[in-house]
Write a structure and sequence with these properties.
2 copies of one chain form a homodimer.
Chain A (H helix, E strand, L loop, with lengths): L1 E3 L2 H13 L4 E6 L5 H13 L2 E6 L19 H10 L4 E3 L3 H4 L6 E5 L6 H5 L3 H16 L3 E5 L3 H13 L5 E5 L19 H6 L1 H15 L5 H15 L4 E9 L13 E9 L4 E9 L1
Parallel strand pairs in A: 1-4, 2-3, 2-6, 3-4, 6-7
Antiparallel strand pairs in A: 8-9, 9-10
Helix pairs in contact in A: 6-7, 9-10
Chain lengths: ~280, ~280
């Protein structure tokens, strides 16, 4: 597996692949890779001739009081995992390489950001869209792979691709979970043992909401109340940041009653880790 | 000359050229073409295998009280002029084609915008950077051609290219002038005869400032005062929007005294047309 630090080297590598008629699959990550990332790499390897992954903890998507500095890192293990999943080239830029002019010019996301993580993390999706615009231009992928754990990110990246006319197809991949249901996350390592024991209730609350919908409940507010009540009685350590139910990918309530594709999404704050999870359902 | 309305058709055309090893020169315009644009096209034709021009009056770079609706148009003459200057493909999209999601995601310029036209036209360069990001991704140029009449635009587009890692070289082309010195502009047609007779003083004022620098003046404020005084005594119809002298392309005063490359820039408002001009000098 090749490893690159300079944008121009990755660009040259990708350019040669494209010139030779090969398709490029790309999975951007922030490193500290887990089975969720592995599933993206494997899908990319199955679909594309060449797989490029990036590992870059993007400072502009973190708020001032967030965990940028403490974001977990393990580049040696990451490289082994990426290679074992069929990644051909790993891009490991530093901040100066991606932001040669600092934040002189950035991307701004003006819709779908007033809910869920966008509401709790102002500016987060501006940072995501900024770094991805740069990475897409450098890597020139035909397909990009994102996990549905960050469902709001998937919706916004799809809009970014369409708005900026990137010739890219987005492949949204299912959430990978621990055996007890907890969604895989680089941040799970920062849970205390007692928090880790509690965290599987996050997914169970979502399943509880899903069950109610399957039984015929179509009222957004009642579904949210059901899931919230479940959390209030099961989460003793985690603080609920939000629980919401919205149409997906619009991230609005498009109808008075649930109709079409629905997301129930939650964020829970533990002492050193903010966890997110969601479930999407066709109504 | 080919003409395209759909981004995907231009992309496919450009993609084929690139695949065949050809270089693409691109000159984005707002139409109503004049000799200034012609000079860009001819330079592109001399430097690149394939020349693409676009004609799109970009709504997002106009302020609410600006001349978007009244911006002059003459698509038939534009096509003839473009073809005669060696343009191979003209891209004439409508607003929906460029902004399929409206302004859901935009580009924001956070530096070099607090002076000159950026100060007078808040949001103008956000609109410019947004549309150019889209056009660069659609057209995939190797070289892009911009006129130095919009010197602040040239500085910002250079920063955009660098910030977003576009594999593009920017070629800044000299200002083309009428025989009496007035900078060529699509907006000149909107001057009344008496305004048109006065407008050449704009360039003469800049030359006056240039002469002072050549004679050894190195104080920014005194140069600005010299040029401003010239305008106050020569412009009876035009209202001065700004006169400024700054380092270029930083668009700051990098030193207490003039040093390096300097721009003296001016904007003058007539009844139906706001004219800009500038001169750059090595100190």
């Amino acid at each position: 597996m090749l490893q690159f630090k300079n944008p121009s080297d990755v660009y040259a590598f990708a350019y040669r692949q494209k010139r030779d008629g090969k398709t490029i699959g790309f999975a951007p990550t922030m490193g500290y890779l887990h089975e969720g990332h592995a599933s993206l790499f494997k899908k990319a390897a199955a679909n594309s001739d060449v797989v490029i992954a990036s590992s870059f903890v993007n400072p502009t998507q973190f708020g001032e009081r967030e965990d940028f500095i403490h974001y977990p890192k393990n580049p040696v293990r990451d490289a082994m995992l990426a290679e074992s999943c069929g990644v051909h080239a790993l891009f490991l830029p530093n901040t100066e390489a991606i932001y040669p002019n600092g934040e002189e010019i950035t991307v701004k996301v003006n819709a779908r950001t007033d809910v869920l993580c966008g509401k709790s993390r102002p500016g987060h999706f501006d940072g995501v869209a900024t770094v991805l615009s740069k990475l897409f231009t450098i890597v020139q992928p035909d397909h990009v792979y994102f996990g549905m754990k960050d469902a709001q990110q998937v919706a916004i990246v799809q809009a970014l691709i369409q708005s900026f006319h990137f010739p890219i197809k987005l492949i949204a991949c299912p959430i990978i979970r621990e055996p007890d249901g907890l969604a895989k996350s680089s941040r799970n390592v920062r849970l205390r043992p007692d928090e880790r024991r509690e965290a599987p209730f996050i997914y169970q609350g979502l399943q509880h909401g899903h069950c109610c919908i399957k039984k015929g409940e179509r009222n957004f507010d009642r579904i949210i109340a059901t899931v919230s009540n479940y959390y209030h009685s099961h989460l003793k350590l985690g603080q609920i940041d939000y629980v919401d139910a919205l149409n997906y990918p619009e991230l609005k309530r498009m109808h008075p009653e649930m109709h079409g594709k629905i997301i129930i999404a939650v964020a829970v704050c533990y002492d050193q880790a903010r966890l997110i999870d969601n479930i999407t359902i066709e109504c």
